C-alpha cells in the first residue's frame, strides 16, 4: 500500500526547546502538502536579490497519524519527494533520519519508532539560509507518501524496466525486480510480470517462483516480448505499464503498476541525436523548480501546466536547472512528450554560497545520485543526466576526478542514457584567467558573477574559445558522452575541428542570440540542440532580465535592486503568459509563419536604459499607451518573411527587411496614434501573413479563464484574470487592484501578477494586475461546485465556476 500522506500537517517556526518554555501563543498553521513556507515570509532588502529578497528561516512540520495494531507484522515507511532543506525527521520524538539535499527524494523507515494501536507523531525540521543562487523555497514542498508492505515485498525502487532490443516487429522488455524477505522464516512466493497497454489489455506475461531466506534479497529478471511496439516520442508519447504481482490467488501479497515507454537513443557526431532512429534537435528550455506565485510548492497540476505551456510555445526539451526534477513534472513530461536533461548539482566541493550543498557533497553525493537514477530509470522522457552546472572544479585536473566518479556511478546504475556536464569555460577557470582579461573587463559597480559576465559581453565567447580554457576543461569534458557548453556557442565550430569525436549541446545560452545559435545547431550535425536561459520565468535572481532607466549623466541603475522579485528573463512569465521572446523563438525554430508585433516601452525623457545580458528588448505586445499622439515608439516585427510592411490606422509607414538576413526582425520608429497597428509580411509581391494590435478603450470588464472547468477533489485550478475593454481587448495600460472571494468547497492558494519588481505578496486576497493581467490558484477542498468572484473598482464583478469531482 502506497498512499498520499499530504493532509493533516501543521507548520510553525522552528525554535529551540528552551524558547518553548516561554509561551508565545499558538504559531502553528494547518497546511496540506505540498507547502512552501518561505513564500509567506516578509521580504527584506538585506536578504539579497538571489533569493528574491526572501529571508531564510527554519520551520517545523508536524503530523499525528494512527498506526493500526495489524501493522506490527508489516513494514512501514514514509517517502519524501523533496524537503528544502537539511531535513531532520523525528518519530514520536526520536530521531529517525536526515537528508541534507533539498531536491532528491528519500525514505525513512518508521518501524523501530512506532507505537502500534495508538496515534503516532512525525516531525520534520527544515531550514534554508544563504544556500541558493535562486529562490529555494522552504519546507516539505513536494508530495509525501506512506508505504505499508508485507515482510516479503518488492523494494521501494525495486522495479527497473529497460528495452535493450527494439524493432518494428517486437520489443524486448527486460524487467528486473528486487525482492526482500524480512520475515524470520524462508519464504517461497511467485512473481508475475505483465505488460499492459493504455487500454488495460494484457499484451505479454511471465511468471516464476522466488525463494528467499530470512533477511535475504534477490533480483528476479523477466524478459518479455512486446509485439508491434508503439514507440514513445515527443510527437507520440505512447506508454505501457508493467504490472508486478507478488504472490497469487488468495496469497497475493502486492501489486504494483509501473509506467514505461519504448524508445531507442543514439548519438554520434555525424548524425547527432537520434530517437527511434530519427534525428532530432533539442529545442530546449532551462527551467528552475519554483511555480511562481505558489513559490516552491510542486503541485502536480502546476508542474503539468508548466510543461503544457512550454510545449505549446515550441520547446521539446527541458533542462532541470540546477537540480533533480520533481517526480510530478517528470510524470507530465512522460505523458505529454517532453524530453528531459535531469541535472544533479549546482556545486560539488567548492561552494557558491556560504551554507550551500558543498558542505554535504563529499559525504552525500553518491546517495543523491542513487536517488536521481532511481527516480528516472523507467521514464522515457529522460534522455540525459547532467552531473553539474558551472562547477568551479571543472577547470582543475585534480578536482575533475569528482566528475569522473559521478559519471561512472551513473553508468553503473543506468547505462541506457547519456551523461553531460553543463560547463562554463569562463566560470570553471575564472580565478586563473581573470587577471589576463582585467583591462578589457574594467571596474564593476556591483561585482556579482552575472554582472561580470554582462560586462564582458562577447568576450565570454572569446575566453571560452581560448587555448588556456580549452586545455583546462578538456579532462572534465572527456568523462561525459555529450559536451555541455554554457554561454560558449563560439566553441561549436572549434570543437568540430579540434575534437571531431565530440557531440555538443548548448546547455545554457542567451535568448537574444537564439537566431545565431539555432543556425549553428541546424547546420552542425554534432551539435544536438540548445537550452535557453530561460524558458519559464522564476522567483529569485531578481532583475536578471529586467530593463531599468536612470539619469543619463549618472551611474547605471541596478536592475537587481529591491524590491525585485522575479528574474524576468523567461520566454513565459510566471502567470503562463508568453512574452515577445517566445514568439521570436518560435519563428526562428521554423514553427510559426505569422508575424509578431512587439512594441518598445517608451523610455522616460532624459533617461537611459540599463540591463544585464539576459534581457530581451524591453517590449510588449500592446498598442495601448498613455502617451500623447505623435510620441515615437520603437516597434519590432518578428518574421521569417523577407519583408514587412507596417501600417497605422491603414496608413503605410513603409517596408523593412526581415527574415534570416535581418535576424528575423524588422525595426520601425512609429509615431503613436491610438487605433490599429498592422504588420503585413511579404515574399516578393505576395502577402504571406499579417498580425494586428488594437488600442484598448476604457476598461469595461473583468474576464476570467479557468484552465480546467472540472478538477479532481483536492486538486488545483488556475484562473486567469484580465482587465478588458467593451470589445474584449486587453487593457494593458489600465491596471487595477483586483480582489477575489471563493464560495463553496475550495480555497484561494495564491493571487499575483508577473510584475518583476513589487512589494505586493502572493498570499493575499487582493493584488494589482500587471499589463492588465493577474493569476489566481484555487484548491478544491471537497467534491462540489465552487464560485470564484473577482472584483475591481469601477468594473462589474466577474465569476467563474470550478467543479470538483
TrEMBL record:
It comes from the Bacteria. Residues 273-445 form the Glycoside hydrolase family 2 catalytic domain. Keywords: Glycosidase, Hydrolase. Residues 702-800 form the Glycoside hydrolase family domain. Residues 57-147 form the Glycosyl hydrolases family 2 sugar binding domain. GO terms for biological process: carbohydrate metabolic process. Pfam families: DUF4982, Glyco_hydro2_C5, Glyco_hydro_2, Glyco_hydro_2_C, Glyco_hydro_2_N. Gene3D superfamilies: Galactose-binding domain-like (2.60.120.260), Glycosidases (3.20.20.80), Immunoglobulins (2.60.40.10). Residues 630-684 form the DUF4982 domain. Residues 159-263 form the Glycoside hydrolase family 2 immunoglobulin-like beta-sandwich domain. One of its GO terms (molecular function) is hydrolase activity, hydrolyzing O-glycosyl compounds. Belongs to the glycosyl hydrolase 2 family. This is Glycoside hydrolase family 2 protein. It comes from Leifsonia tongyongensis.
Amino acid at each position: 500500500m502506497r498512499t498520499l500522506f499530504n493532509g493533516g500537517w501543521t507548520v510553525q517556526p522552528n525554535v529551540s526547546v528552551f524558547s518553548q518554555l516561554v509561551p508565545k501563543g499558538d504559531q502553528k498553521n494547518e497546511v496540506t502538502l505540498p507547502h512552501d513556507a518561505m513564500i509567506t515570509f516578509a521580504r527584506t532588502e538585506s536578504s539579497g536579490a538571489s533569493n528574491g529578497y526572501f529571508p531564510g528561516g527554519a520551520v517545523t512540520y508536524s503530523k499525528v497519524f494512527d498506526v493500526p495494531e495489524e501493522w506490527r507484522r508489516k513494514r512501514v515507511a514514509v517517502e519524501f519527494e523533496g524537503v528544502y532543506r537539511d531535513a531532520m525527521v523525528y518519530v514520536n520524538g526520536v530521531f529517525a533520519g536526515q537528508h541534507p539535499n533539498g531536491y532528491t527524494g528519500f525514505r525513512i523507515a518508521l518501524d523501530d519508532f512506532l507505537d502500534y494501536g495508538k496515534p503516532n507523531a512525525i516531525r520534520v525540521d527544515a531550514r534554508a539560509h544563504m544556500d541558493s543562487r535562486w529562490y529555494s523555497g522552504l519546507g516539505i514542498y513536494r508530495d509525501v507518501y506512506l508505504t505499508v508492505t508485507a515482510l516479503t515485498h518488492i523494494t521501494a525502487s525495486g522495479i527497473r524496466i529497460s528495452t535493450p532490443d527494439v524493432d518494428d516487429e517486437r520489443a524486448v522488455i527486460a524487467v528486473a525486480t528486487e525482492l526482500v524477505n524480512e520475515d524470520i522464516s524462508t519464504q517461497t512466493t511467485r512473481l508475475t510480470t505483465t505488460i499492459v497497454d493504455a487500454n488495460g489489455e494484457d499484451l505479454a506475461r511471465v511468471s516464476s517462483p522466488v525463494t528467499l531466506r530470512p533477511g535475504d534479497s534477490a533480483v528476479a529478471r523477466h524478459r518479455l516480448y512486446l509485439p508491434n511496439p508503439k514507440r514513445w516520442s515527443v510527437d507520440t508519447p505512447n506508454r505501457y505499464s508493467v504490472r508486478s504481482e507478488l504472490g497469487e490467488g488468495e496469497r497475493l501479497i502486492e501489486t504494483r503498476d509501473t509506467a514505461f515507454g519504448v524508445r531507442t537513443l543514439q548519438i554520434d557526431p555525424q548524425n547527432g541525436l537520434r530517437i527511434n532512429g530519427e534525428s532530432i534537435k533539442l529545442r530546449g528550455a532551462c527551467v528552475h523548480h519554483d511555480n511562481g506565485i505558489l513559490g516552491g510548492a510542486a503541485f502536480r497540476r502546476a508542474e503539468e501546466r508548466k510543461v503544457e505551456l512550454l510545449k505549446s510555445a515550441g520547446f521539446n526539451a527541458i533542462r532541470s536547472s540546477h537540480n533533480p526534477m520533481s517526480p510530478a513534472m517528470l510524470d507530465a513530461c512522460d505523458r505529454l512528450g517532453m524530453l528531459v536533461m535531469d541535472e544533479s548539482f549546482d556545486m560539488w566541493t567548492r561552494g557558491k554560497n556560504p551554507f550551500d550543498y558543498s558542505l554535504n557533497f563529499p559525504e552525500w553525493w553518491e546517495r543523491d545520485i542513487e536517488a536521481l537514477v532511481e527516480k528516472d530509470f523507467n521514464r522515457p522522457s529522460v534522455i540525459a543526466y547532467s552531473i553539474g552546472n558551472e562547477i568551479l572544479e571543472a577547470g582543475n585536473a585534480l578536482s575533475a576526478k569528482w566528475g569522473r566518479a559521478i559519471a561512472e556511478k551513473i553508468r553503473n546504475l543506468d547505462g541506457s542514457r547519456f551523461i553531460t556536464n553543463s560547463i562554463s569555460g569562463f566560470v570553471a577557470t575564472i580565478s586563473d584567467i581573470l587577471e589576463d582579461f582585467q583591462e578589457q573587463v574594467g571596474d564593476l559597480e556591483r561585482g556579482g558573477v552575472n554582472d561580470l559576465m554582462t560586462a564582458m559581453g562577447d568576450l565570454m565567447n572569446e575566453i571560452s574559445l581560448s587555448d588556456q580554457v580549452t586545455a583546462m576543461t578538456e579532462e572534465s569534458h572527456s568523462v561525459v558522452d555529450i559536451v555541455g557548453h554554457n554561454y560558449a556557442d563560439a566553441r561549436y565550430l572549434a570543437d568540430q575541428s579540434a575534437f571531431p569525436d565530440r557531440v555538443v549541446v548548448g546547455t545554457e545560452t542567451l535568448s537574444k542570440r537564439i537566431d545565431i545559435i539555432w543556425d549553428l545547431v541546424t547546420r552542425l550535425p554534432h551539435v544536438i540542440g540548445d537550452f535557453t536561459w530561460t524558458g519559464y520565468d522564476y522567483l529569485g535572481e531578481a532583475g536578471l532580465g529586467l530593463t531599468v532607466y536612470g539619469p543619463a549623466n549618472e551611474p547605471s541603475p541596478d536592475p537587481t535592486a529591491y524590491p525585485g522579485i522575479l528574474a524576468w528573463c523567461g520566454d513565459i512569465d510566471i502567470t503562463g503568459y508568453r512574452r515577445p521572446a517566445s514568439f521570436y523563438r518560435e519563428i526562428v525554430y521554423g514553427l510559426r509563419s505569422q508575424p509578431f508585433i512587439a512594441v518598445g516601452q517608451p523610455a522616460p525623457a532624459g533617461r537611459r536604459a540599463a540591463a544585464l545580458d539576459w534581457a530581451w528588448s524591453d517590449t510588449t505586445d500592446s498598442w495601448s499607451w498613455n502617451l500623447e499622439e505623435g510620441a515615437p515608439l520603437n516597434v519590432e516585427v518578428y518574421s521569417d518573411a523577407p519583408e514587412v510592411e507596417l501600417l497605422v490606422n491603414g496608413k503605410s509607414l513603409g517596408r523593412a527587411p526581415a527574415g534570416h538576413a535581418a535576424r528575423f526582425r524588422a525595426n520601425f520608429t512609429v509615431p503613436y496614434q491610438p487605433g490599429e497597428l498592422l504588420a503585413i509580411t511579404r515574399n516578393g509581391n505576395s502577402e504571406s501573413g499579417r498580425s494586428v494590435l488594437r488600442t484598448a478603450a476604457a476598461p469595461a470588464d473583468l474576464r476570467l479563464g479557468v484552465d480546467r472547468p472540472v478538477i479532481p477533489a483536492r486538486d488545483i485550478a488556475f484562473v486567469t484574470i484580465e482587465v478588458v475593454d467593451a470589445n474584449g481587448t486587453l487593457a494593458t495600460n489600465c491596471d487595477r487592484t483586483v480582489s477575489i472571494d471563493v464560495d463553496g468547497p475550495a480555497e484561494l492558494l495564491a493571487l499575483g501578477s508577473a510584475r518583476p519588481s513589487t512589494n505586493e505578496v502572493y498570499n493575499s486576497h487582493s493584488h494589482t494586475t500587471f499589463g492588465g493581467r493577474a493569476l489566481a490558484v484555487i484548491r478544491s477542498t471537497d467534491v462540489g461546485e465552487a464560485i470564484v468572484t473577482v472584483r475591481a473598482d469601477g468594473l462589474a464583478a466577474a465569476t467563474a465556476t470550478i467543479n470538483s469531482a
